[in-house]
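Sample pair:
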Amino acid sequence: SAPRPAPPAVQDSRREAKMGMKVPGVEKLADKNQSRLSPNQSIYSQGFVRVIVGPDKTTFTLHRGLLCRCFKYFNALLNGAFMESSNDIVELPEEDPGVFEIVHMWLYTSQLAHSVDGKDRPCSFLQLVNLYIFGDKFHSEGLRIDAIDQLILRVAEDKKYIPNPAYVYENTAASSPLRKLLVATYAHHQPSLAKLLQSHPDHFQDCPEALKDIVVALAEKDPSENTLTMSKAPFVMFYCTYHEHDTTDPSQCRQMWIGDNDEDTTSSLTLEGLRALADDNRSSFDRRILQIS
């Protein structure tokens, strides 16, 4: 099929890149991940690559260097020992074009959003889950962190569980932070979980493993946590617990979310504060990554 038109923000980024201009946020986002490109090589100097996604062969065109810097899998595929002969084309026949469209925008804007009628909208729970799974499958530390942060924020805001445990467990490893977050959301408030099981007794029918993990979490948790609102739950207050740091310093990440001084400011951290951090394009977080990368 014909290449899908890029969102306006992506088109602007491409124009600026071709003119030799730096696009705010892209260099910082790319430095979240290791690659074989030397620091002196611009992510825009490597040409373009076409990514063909899904059974209908939806085509996306993006900067090769940017894709390789943010995804270890694609870096190995396009630059490594197993480099294919036609290394300007990547085929992902089993992936969802809708998910990759969000990834495409994220690469250029560092924002997780999807376009509806020409306007950017927040991603749904399922989209965020799929973005995390995509980042996990193709080895992107930055995408995993951003997706799980947005999931935690949505759980806190909407006061809902991460849906479809069976789907999450089918697509993640036993040690996955996404699994751990799902379990934590269900185990956080025992009375609410009891009501869920009473109203939907078959909720875990397709995923008994998740129910077993939740029971274990309930047995190990501090009973006092039942009095905490969702926005004050430990999994909300300590984002970094669910991050996998391959190339970045977790102490810097934890300090970013809890506070910028040595005092424990967890009790005063509000949901509004978390939302402001998440909506601030993670600029402070990215600066710290640059300092330690």
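Confidence is low (pLDDT under 50) at residues 8-40, 254-271, 277-293.
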